[in-house]
Write a structure and sequence with these properties.
The complex is a heterodimer of chains A (301) and B (234). Chain A has 301 residues and is mostly helical. Chain A is built from eleven helices and two strands, in the order H-H-H-H-E-H-H-H-H-E-H-H-H. Chain B has a single domain, classed as 3-Layer(aba) Sandwich (Rossmann fold). In chain B, strand 1 and strand 2 form a beta hairpin. Classes of the chains: A mainly alpha (301), B alpha/beta (234). The interface between A and B is medium-sized, with 16 and 24 residues.
Amino acid sequence: MDIQFFIELFFGGLTRGSIYALIALGYTLVYGIIELINFAHGEVYMLGAFTALLVAGVLGIYGFPFGGILIVATLAAIVWCAAYGYTLEKVAYKPLRGAPRLSPLISAIGMSIFLQNYVLLAQTSDFVPFPNLLPEMPFLDSIEVLSPSNFLILLVSTLAMVALTVFIRHTRMGKAMRATAQNRKMALLLGINADKIISLTFIIGSSLAALGGVLIASHMQVINYNIGFLAGLKAFTAAVLGGIGSIPGAMVGGLVLGLAESFATGYFSGNYEDILAFGILILILIFRPDGILGKAKVQKV
Amino acid sequence: MLEMRHVDTFYGNIQALRDVSLEVNDGEIVTLIGANGAGKSTTLMTVCGINRPRHGEILWNSQPIHELAPHEIVALGISQVPEGRLIFPDLSVSENLDLGAFLRRDTQGIKDDLDYAFSLFPILAERRRQPGGTLSGGEQQMLAICRALMARPKLLLLDEPSLGLAPIIIQQIFSIIQRVNTNGTTVFLVEQNANQALRIAHRGYVMENGRIVMADSAQSLLQNDEVRSAYLGM
């Protein structure tokens, strides 16, 4: 076995997996709080990539340095997508809070179709090139298997996940989020404003998706109005694989799915990459619907 | 302090509270006794803003509060220990307690109250890092009471604190409730265990099918023949 090739696939898988993990966190956070699969989440990721593209384009005209452009464009994408996530919840889900569970799900799919077509009309149906904004990283030259964009994705997504974990575990708002996920009524009785927590959840999830969108766009260097569809479904698979509602689960699920896809592509054929991902989804749903780290819900009789 | 006037509460089309009027005065322990399903828990949830009254009003120091959001009601100084304790099972004992003080910003005061809570129930201090879900029923009840006290409430609402606990633990819980009251917190206690509740209360109300059917001093209710046969098993 060629060890060089193996390491390359491994890092490729990690890179891909950490993007899945970033998006999967949004699914899992929202599901944890309001038990809704936010099917419009992939679109937020796509909007992140487009926002960064537009901001980078404008800043590029004025001749900003590339590193600066990347940072400003990323921040703009995060803020813009957070606003989208917040509004999405207020417009599409909050009015359906007391409705049967199918209603917000349909609303989510509606929002997804709306956002895709809105970008299609406002931008274009063509693939658009995304500028290469990465600074030179000469220290990576000795490590052939790790490209600058791979390195950046691994670094930034690790930092984001560590920051999220610290926030959830150690801040009072993070504790309030976990409390609301475990028992909404009791959280209300302690004076926790559940509407605020739900908004916060959408803001955090959307920011992570935006970050993922910018990172993947600068890696692939090409974007399109429907990149959110497949990425969204893959990340959803990752969230279910790890155990929907579980934050470490989404991280593990993303990495496992990314590695599985990468190795399957390398050792078998790239044609079966999607089949593998969705095959995994079907198998988990049949044999272990609670996922790797999810807790089995015990039905009390 | 707290006054309910002609309150009707519904679940959909089912009426749970019928024309409920009662009051709790500063410094009292008031108990609401009644059978399972009489509407006792609904009364507390209506006070806290979880259920909305369809008619009638709820006053806090003469101000209407029945249209406020639950978190605004907590901010006024009303805390509830709900039926079934509702401990957050995956949060540690410390985290559960910390969330009790969610609306407070006075770090030193919170720390003092935490020490006070641990002095009331030393077992909780021993288990502070354990997930709440791993505690026994009695320990969870202690934790639930302390969590409510962490908000430093003026009025403490307790829903069936004795439910499912061993007699010795019940004794302990009731003596703590008395101690909390002596330290200045007004208590509104909902109980099926009428005997215990009336022994520590100043006044009591009896509820049947969503209506208040009797109101008197706890002493007289304990001696009332109807109460004795219906709720005290004598």
